[in-house]
Amino acid sequence: MKRREFISLLGGAAAAWPMAARGQQPERMRRIGVLINLTADDPQSQARIAVLLKGLQQFGWAEGLNIRIDYRWGSGDVNRLRNYAAELIALAPDVVLAGGSEAAATFQQASRNLPIVFVNVADPVGAGYVDSLSRPGGNATGLVLFEYGISPKWLELLKEIASGVTRVAVIRDAAIPAGIGQFGAIQGVSSSLGVEVSPLGLRDANEIERALTAFAQGPNGGLIVTASPAAVSHRDLIIKIAARHRLPAVYPYRLFVTSGGLMSYGPDQVGQYRQAAGYIDRILKGEKPADLPVQAPTRYELVINLKSAKALGLEIPATLLARADEVIE
């Protein structure tokens, strides 16, 4: 080989080496913060994270490969949420996922610049997280859990499954706007259905047991549990007390019924984490939360537990069974 040809070949190879090296450089690790107002060992927590990871994988994101996820669990404690939100923000994530209204509020109070994707939030406009559903306008977007219009449906279903009910205890979290809104919507239709409704708090297990036990001393009682992180955290206790006092009950989510509750009507909480993965992907690829419309549920599921109905001596109307999305036997 002539000297000039050798030098040209060597120069071409040298020019190619940096290009090849650049092509083999690992993708920049992106960081995601996750704050959920449940405990880490709650089966619901694990189900939600599993769905989130699967959704992210469908968009090419894999934990440990091109994303790092930092998890924090609020466990129903507002102070813990604030501390953990501050911890996650200090880690400089590219985007955070807020599981529930309290987590979303905590992130927004701490930062108006950090991109936030929220899930399982009842009223993001009323709470001030976004300007509107179609044009969020700020640093947050995500998925609405439900509209307050679903709340009267719980009372209608309770009357349909237990027509003799004339008194209904409504467990709601008065510390969050959604708790007040849901109770107000139920109260608005109670007189037309011939039912007296009474709000019950759920600050802690003692309050729940004391209030429900006192309510159950009267005749013709029923129970509605509205949607809140506290209700989910105390679900086993609430279901146990309702069964002990033979109170027909309607719950906001399927997980109450699979845990032994009578009936639920509501959105798919776990599924929202799969949908959230799509928005996280779009934000990591450069889109802004302000330009991503908030999504609302497209369907609600009715789930009935026949074993629980039998224990209460209730005969489920055939028309109601026909409308059910799932019947647990």
- The CATH homologous superfamily of the largest domain corresponds to Response regulator
Distance between the termini: 83 Å
Question: What percentage of the residues does DSSP assign to strands (E)?
Answer: 15-25%
The major beta sheet can be summarized as:
7 strands, mixed
Q: State the domain count.
A: 2
Cα radius of gyration in angstroms: 25 Å
Question: Percent helix among the residues?
Answer: 40-55%
Instruction: Please identify, by name, the CATH architecture of the largest domain.
Output: 3-Layer(aba) Sandwich
Number of helices: 13
Helix/strand-derived category reads: alpha/beta
Shape: elongated
Mean pLDDT: 90
Q: Could you list the spans in which at least 5 consecutive residues all have pLDDT below 50?
A: 1-25
Query: What order do the SSEs take from the amino end to the carboxyl end, as H and E?
Result: HEHEHEHEEHEHEHEHHEHEHEHHE
Strand order of the largest sheet: 7-6-8-9-10-11-12
Record field, number of beta strands: 12
Using the coordinates above, name the CATH class of the largest domain.
Alpha Beta
The CATH topology of the largest domain is given as Rossmann fold
